[in-house]
Amino acid sequence: MPRFEPHPPRRPALVTGASSGIGAATAVAFAAAGHPVALGARRVDTCEELAAAIRAGGGTAVAHRLDVADSDSVKSFVAAATDALGDPEIVVSGAGDVSPDRIHDLDPEAFGAQLQVQLVGAHRLVSHVVPAMVARGRGDVVFVSSDVVRVPRTRMGAYVAAKNGMEGMARALQMELEGTGVRASIVRPGPTATGMGLNWDATTTGEVLDEWVTWGVARHPYFLKPEQVAAVILTVVSAPRGCHLTLVEVEPEAAITRKGDT
Q1: Quick count: other Cβ atoms within 10 Å of Cβ 216?
Q2: Measured between alpha carbons, how far is 37 from 191 in angstroms, rounded to an integer?
Q3: Top-level CATH class of 13-250?
Q4: Helix count (H) and strand count (E) of the chain?
Q5: Fewest CB atoms within 10 A around its CB: which of 22, 72, 78, 204?
Q6: How far apart are CA 197 and CA 195, in angstroms?
Q7: Cα 226 to the center of its chain, rounded Å
Q8: Nearest to residue 144, comparing CAs of 225, 37, 247?
Q9: CA of 145: how far to CAs of 10, 33, 122, 153, in Å?
Q10: What are phi and psi of 215, to 5 degrees?
Q11: What is the mean pLDDT of each run of 10 residues along the chain (262 residues)?
Q12: Residues catalogued as catalytic
């Protein structure tokens, strides 16, 4: 008969991009699992509403404004979250958005702005949190990537570049953190029904989807739910000590077909 261990202590978690989509779902999933959660995004009012709902349900959550493109904002967010919840044990880097521009039509400033949020912003978070994790000898950092790293999509040039850069940084970080007790992991979702792309007009959306079909990157019309990705992120950080889920790719399941179906 195995010996049953007590439940692990609650680990404070920082979640960026927590105002909607995968970030919001991750904050809810972590809180439901007993982790105190700090929600960060530029839309702080939305984060406040979600944090209040979590507290009403018996969880522990705080919200603070966060712009990962601003080093001072990242520093303030981490400090406020630490004061409220204690030293961060988990960090989920998921802030970002995408515009439906072709690379040659995108001006350099707009291209650079997406890299500032999704690549440099992820590093800002790492630089303000991971050194203290290393000093304590424990922690989990999860980078929310995208399957565009494996199969690029048209009309997402800056996003593709940013996610490739972020995964490269994460892989180097994994090597550098080896033996420190801090785990860096990559979660790579496929198409997910989030707020990204909802501000595109119908014509642009149709053009983009047609291009993806042409290049074979839209095999079926089904999308992941943010809650499904959040469940995977929670699984990654819940892995027992001594093992490390370095890269987890999550794709939407197609509809089940049976022999004779048309």
Answers
A1: 8
A2: 26
A3: alpha beta
A4: 8, 7
A5: 72
A6: 6
A7: 10
A8: 247
A9: 26, 23, 11, 14
A10: -90, 5
A11: 52 95 96 97 95 96 96 97 97 83 90 93 97 98 95 88 96 98 96 64 70 71 89 97 96 82 58
A12: 159
